[in-house]
Structure formats: structure tokens, C-alpha cells
Amino acid sequence: MRVKDLVGKRIECTCGKVHEIPRIDILLVCAEEVVSSSTNALFLVDENTASLVEVPRERCLLLDGSERVLATMENVEKTMEKLRDYEEIVPIGSGTLTDIARYAAFLIGKDFSCVPTAPSVDAYTSTVAPILVHGVKKTFKAKPPRRIFLDTEILKNALFDLLRAGVGDIAAKVIARMDWVLSNAFTGEYLCDFVWEDLKDVLKEVLKSTPNVLKREEKAVEVLTEGLLVSGLNMTIVGNSRPASGAEHMVSHMVEMYYEEKGKFPPFHGLTVAVGTFVAMKAYELIVNGIELPKEDFSLAERERELKEMFEEEKVREFLKTYKEKKIPKVDLNKARKMILNVYEEYFPLLEDALEEIGVRDLIEDLGRELLAKIVRLSNTIRDRFTVLDILDSERTLKSFSEWVIQQV
Predict the structure, then answer these.
(1) Which phi and psi angles does 311 have, rounded to 5°?
(2) What confidence score (pLDDT) does residue 35 get?
(3) What is the radius of gyration, based on Cα positions, of the chain?
(4) DSSP string spanning 210-223?
């Protein structure tokens, strides 16, 4: 895997920073070998992954989540309590268990390795952990894994929806790149080109091979896994999620928090990201093609009212505080168009095909058009990160866009 060429390197980057990439051992093994090489480790599993690798029961923490475990602070605390008696934690699972384990290990200074059970997210090599705190998704600094154990048989036989989710999560990187470029131009945010150069070729390969991923072809699943590992490593290199997360993740987080608010399990993360990627693609289509939508005011009072229809009072206050403190610049749309045109022309046809392959329109219908329109209007409220949705907000077209985009389904 090409990702092996990156780990452990020290790179003097053209962005002006020196990137110290942590040493991560990426091991292609049969999952059963994990136990013998992790003699003083606590294994973290859920009901779906407990049967995939035979681990000693006395060294296993089963997180009960009925249908699915969520990455909540309560589960982090439960894991920390058990982990105190061990040197290392090894989650056997996908993004949720990995994030719980990563953050728990970080908080109490323990080692962390992982056994991915699906090529569904880019969490495995990253150093950030999105955790639900009182129902609000927050991203915390965490730690990279010491080792990643990859078993191709397990990965290619993951749930079909987790394969779809992996494509959805990697597709988001196109939007993340464009949002970051524009934020650099119009807000002065730091930008590193190395992490895009590092990812762009394997990203294109993954998007092209989406049909084969869904057929569980081994080579395609390996390429998807590599793309996700590189993307996670890019977050580690930069020190935050900016290389991998833009407007599409804000939509995703809003969907996930809404489900949590209603006491329901959300779709898998990469599937909600796919919905957000579709939304952001359409926003960029407006900019690139010069499509004009009616200008409509979306007042703070109206925003507050719609937030209260979805969330409890305390969360609404937190979201509004974030939004009020957010500085949204006026954007020169012609300049923006020129800056993103190359990426748009090279990647959007592939992106559109990949999203069609994983059934993004069905995902939107399952979510509900009215709910999605409201989420589109509100997503830039929840985080102080400049994205294409802020451009529409500053142009007073966010409200009309939220109705226009669901008509594109």
C-alpha cells in the first residue's frame, strides 16, 4: 500500500510547515493473529463485531448498543474505566468503536491499535475523534494508532451499506478540498497542498472503481481502504479534519444529531456524508455555471425558530452562539469560480457517477426532502468552518438553494 510510504516520514512542506508523520505499522494479517501480538490489550467490540475475531473474554469489553453503538462521551468514559488495567486498547470495528477507543486512549495515556472491520470511514489513521456530548457532535484531538491490522477477507465481506458508506466518505474529499481552497482565499485560513497531492490520484481511482467495490472485488476494496487510510493520515499531518471535511460533513453531522435527538439510530456516517456531498456538489454547480437563484432573507429569528423545531433549547443556544461569532466574508464569485474550476471539471463527473452507484437519491428520499431542506438551511450554524454554504448565506440565496437542491433529486 502506498500509505506505507508516508508513515514515519518528516516532510519539509511547501506550505511552510514541517510535517512529522507518526509511525504507524500497517499490517496485512489474518485477524486471528491480532490476539497473539496484543498480549496486554483490552479488545473493544460491539454485538456485530464480537464474532469476527476470537478474543479472550476476560480481555474484551462489549459495548451494548442494541442495534448499534454510538460514539458518545458515556461510552468513552465506560471504556476508560476498563482500560485503566491494560497497556493498550484494540477496537475491532469501524468508525464508531475506533473513535471511542482513540479518544479514551488519548485521555488516559494508553496505546491504541485497531482492527478495521469495514472500509467505511477515514477514521483509522486520523488523530481526531467526533464524539457526541449531550447530543452535540464535537471533534476532539486524539491520537493515531500504533498498529492497524488489515484483514482483506473481513473488509470485503463487510455489510453492503458499509461499503457504500466508504465510498460516500471518500467522495467528500473533493468538496473538502474546494471548500478549503476558497477559505484560504477569502478568510486567510492556512492551506496545505501536500495533503491534496498525496490523495488526489488514489481518490480518482476509488471513484472510478465504485461499481467493483460494491461487487466486493478484492482489488477495489483494497484501493478504497488505501484511500481512506491516506485521508485519515492527511488529518494527522495537518492536525485537524480540514483536508477531509467541509460542507458535506456539516450536513452529515446535522442529520446525525437530529436522529440522536429523536432517539433513533442515524444511517451510517458515510451515507449521511454522501447526502451532504450531493448537496455541496449542487451548490458548486450554481457557482461554476452562474445559476442565479432568488435572493431571500433568512433571518436569525427564523433560523432560531427552525432550530427549535429540531433540537432542545440548550443545543439551539450553542449553535446560535457559534453562528453569531462566525465571520462570513463577502466572496467574489468570479474569482471563486476560477479557483475551483480545475478540480470541478476533473472530479465532478466521477463524483456524480460514484454517488449514483451508491444510491444517493434513495438516501435522500429515505431522509425526507422537507427535512433535508431544513438541514441545508441550518448546517452552517453548527461549526465555525467556512464552506460553500457560507457563500450562499452571504449571497442571501441559502434559503432558495435549500428548496432548489431537493428539486434536483
Answers:
(1) -135, 160
(2) 84
(3) 20
(4) HHHHHTT-HHHHHH
Q: What is the pLDDT of residue 66?
A: 56
- 345 neighbors 289 (Cβ within 8 angstroms): no
Q: Decide if 79 contacts 101 (C-beta within 8 A).
A: yes
Q: In whole angstroms, what is the distance from residue 192 CA to residue 63 CA?
A: 38
How is residue 236 written as a grid cell?
A: 494527522
Residue 82 vs residues 54, 92, 344: alpha-carbon distances, Å: 19, 16, 48
291: how many CB neighbours lie within 10 A of its CB? 12
pTM of the model: 0.92
The CA distance from 406 to 369, in Å, is 6
CA angle 280–284–288, rounded 5-degree value:
170
Residue 397 — φ and ψ, nearest 5°? -120, 5
For the chain, the 3-state helix, strand and coil shares in percent, each to the nearest 5, are 55, 10, 30
In angstroms, the Cα distances linking 371 to 171, 282, 309, 316, 389 are 23, 17, 11, 17, 17
Pair 101, 112: CB distance under 8 Å: yes
Contact 117, 268 (CB under 8 A): no
The domains of the chain, with CATH numbers, are 31-150 (3.40.50.1970), 161-407 (1.20.1090.10)
Query: Of the candidates 334, 310, 353, which has an alpha carbon nearest to the alpha carbon of residue 391?
Result: 334
Cα gap 393→405, rounded to integer Å: 15
* Nearest in space to 363 (alpha carbons), one of 261, 281, 252, 212: 252
Question: What is the pairing mode between strands 25-28 and 147-150?
Answer: parallel
Q: Which amino acid is at 351?
A: L
What are the grid coordinates assigned to 176, written together?
473538502
The C-alpha angle 287, 379, 286, rounded to 5 degrees, equals: 10
Q: Is 41 helix (H, G, I), strand (E, B) or coil?
A: strand
The cell for 43 is: 479488545
Alpha helices in 157-239 (DSSP H): 160-187, 194-208, 210-214, 218-238
User: What is the structure's pLDDT at 304?
Assistant: 97
Residue 224's SS3 state is: helix
Walking along the chain (409 residues) 10 residues at a time, the average pLDDT comes out as 80 91 90 84 91 87 79 95 95 93 97 95 90 89 93 95 97 98 97 94 97 97 96 91 96 94 91 98 97 96 97 95 94 96 97 98 96 97 96 97 95
What is the reported pLDDT for 65?
Answer: 63
